[in-house]
Specification:
six-stranded parallel beta sheet; six-stranded mixed beta sheet; 2 domains; about 350 residues; alpha/beta; Dihydrodipicolinate Reductase, domain 2; disordered N terminus
């Protein structure tokens, strides 16, 4: 049975948990380019487009020079992979599932040519004139965009939905986030490295600073002079921007774990006022894009391939009920990347 969706008056989507398949409605046919079509996020984007039956007038797939000329099949048709030599002027929008360097080179060119860019890299997320969008939280920020929209960091995307629910009802004072991030967040080579080390304990670490099989380490990205790793600063900056709380106190530790798909987080929150468990549960249940479970919890293995963020393990501090904790888990390739970008595309081309 296909999952149903309802468009809220605020412009957000409310998901009903029937299955992970979501069929959107009323989207204008789009001429779309995907840059980085052969990567994990690019291929997941193609899966989401097909599953959600997004109407495309045209599709162009771009990849590295090494992949150019190969064929990819999507929705029963074959498409030739193209090298990105110039901006394609016969498309309405482009999803860039590329490195920061490539996005910095090409996103401004697409933008200047009048092509709307949805960029997965971190290159433009903190630019003041670039909206950083989670449609369920701040879709209104798309109004007045200037042809460049940033897709948030994959771990920030997982935790921001429950945080937005709390902020709307109780106003946040402080957040402590510990993330447990899968290797697919680093791309196909990282997944291959995990598989190689699981098969052979002597297989060397190339992508990561330590072996990842049967291991965890508290580092996602390089460290700065303050001892913060790159991912920790991204989470802080992006949560503040999406929640529109530039002074919000946020402290985070990012941990890489030997999981293929799915980011998890243990989150501690201080609200501006005392809260009750019942009121928090109501706020969570009313949040679009999120499923709250009171009596069980989900793991990355269970949610891979699903659109929603799953929240559980809610605890309110008995001695100081301004404080609460919860567990959140989501598919980093979907809500953390591809399907969020497709949601943005839908908002932009709503009929």
């Amino acid at each position: 049975m296909a999952e149903q969706s309802a468009l809220l008056a605020c412009g957000c989507y409310r998901f009903r948990s029937v299955s992970h398949l979501w069929r959107p409605q009323l989207v204008k046919p789009v001429r779309l380019a995907i840059v980085g079509a052969t990567g994990l996020v690019g291929r997941t984007t193609l899966d989401v487009l097909a599953e959600w039956q997004i109407p495309l007038r045209a599709l162009r797939l771009f990849a590295s020079d090494e992949s150019a000329g190969r064929m990819m099949t999507w929705n029963g048709r074959s498409y030739a992979l193209e090298p990105l030599a110039s901006v394609p002027l016969d498309v309405d929008a482009a999803i860039l599932a590329t490195s920061r360097k490539i996005s910095q080179q090409w996103a401004p060119r697409f933008r200047e040519a009048g092509v709307i860019v949805i960029d997965h890299s971190s290159a433009f997320r903190m630019d003041t004139d670039v909206p950083l969008i989670i449609p369920e939280v701040n879709g209104r920020a798309l109004n007045g965009h200037t042809n460049l929209i940033a897709n948030p960091n994959c771990s920030a995307s997982v935790v921001v939905l429950p945080l937005a629910a709390l902020n709307r009802e109780f106003q946040l004072r402080a957040i402590v986030v510990d993330t447990y991030q899968s290797v697919s967040g680093s791309g196909q080579d990282a997944v291959a490295e995990l598989d190689a080390q699981l098969a052979d304990s002597q297989s060397p670490a190339k992508i990561y600073p330590r072996p990842i099989a049967h291991n965890v380490f508290p580092q996602v990205g390089p460290f700065d002079v303050r001892g913060l790793c790159d991912e920790e600063q991204k989470v802080v900056d992006e949560l503040r921007k999406i929640l529109e709380c530039p002074q919000l106190s946020i402290f985070t530790t990012t941990v890489r774990v030997p999981v293929r798909v799915g980011h998890s987080a243990a989150v501690t929150v201080e609200c501006m006022k005392a809260v009750s468990r019942a009121d928090v549960e109501t706020a969570f249940r009313n949040m679009p894009g999120m499923i709250y479970e009171a009596d069980t919890y989900k793991t990355p293995r269970e949610i891979a391939g699903k659109q929603e963020v799953f929240v559980s393990r809610l605890r309110v501090n008995e001695s100081d009920p301004r404080w609460l904790q919860f567990w959140a888990v989501g598919d980093n390739l979907r809500k953390g990347a591809a399907s969020n970008a497709v949601q943005i595309l839908m908002e932009l081309f709503r009929d």
